[in-house]
Amino acid sequence: MKEVTLYSQPECPPCEVVKMFLKEHNVNYKEINIKKDEQARNYLINQLNSYSTPTVTIDSEVISGFNLEALSAALNK
């Protein structure tokens, strides 16, 4: 089973779409709100080289921004 983490923030419509996509495909994921977790925000920027939400990590793969095609391919859905 792949480890999936969603980095999101409030009032982010693309984040909501990604959450719906993950739920529809029965994907277990951990959600991290970068507005509430400054350490996670710094990790997103400095380690994942991403400056936008949603950003999804699937094992070691990083999908920055809203890209359902890449998400689907990474999850083999």
Automatic annotation (TrEMBL):
One of its GO terms (molecular function) is electron transfer activity. PROSITE patterns: GLUTAREDOXIN_2, GST_NTER. Pfam families: Glutaredoxin. InterPro entries: GlrX_YruB, Glutaredoxin, Glutathione_S-Trfase_N, Grx-like_ET, Thioredoxin-like_sf. One of its GO terms (biological process) is cell redox homeostasis. Residues 2-77 form the GST N-terminal domain. This is Glutaredoxin. It comes from Rossellomorea vietnamensis.
